[in-house]
Predict the structure.
Amino acid sequence: MACMLQVAASTVVAASLIRKKQQEVVGFLEANKIDFKELDIAGDEDNRKWMRENVPGEKKPQNGIPLPPQIFNEEQYCGDFDSFFSAKEENIIYSFLGLAPPPGSKVTKSPEEETSLPNGDVAGELEGTSATEGAEKAEEGGENEAQKGGDEDSGNPPETQEKNTEEVTEEAEAEAEAGEAEAGEEEAGEEDS
């Protein structure tokens, strides 16, 4: 690969959590045969200085000293362990690392990379659509399916369709009346108190 990943890590780590994070990043890169160079920030002052200078200000902790592992693609900052872990979980790790996925891999593109939707629409095209317009379009879609014969009663004679509609209406009315009766009983119980 043309890019060289660099992992700023420490060979001398007192905190086991940092050591585990470093091992997870390095292990993942090795397992996936991704070329990288490990920069020892404990034994080499130049590497420590380089890491601190190349982690963007908004990514540095309050004390200003970023903890390893920090991941870079050449001079480009990729992120810290938490960002790496999230990208791995979301299956956008190659995008996170700034690398092309290996041929034949089933890798999800990051949201920024996805410009078209499965139905062929361009992402962001419907952002101006209001919720009611979206609901109306969904209803129109439902009506079209019913007109095409997707309605489950479409094979029944018209009399049966009317009976089914009447039964549903009667059930709905009965449920509504029962709900009103319960509400009335609760109000009466509150007045007695």
The CA atoms of residues 164 and 184 lie 30 Å apart. The first helix runs from residue 16 to 31. Confidence is low (pLDDT under 50) at residues 115-119, 122-154, 160-165. DSSP finds six helices and four strands in the chain.
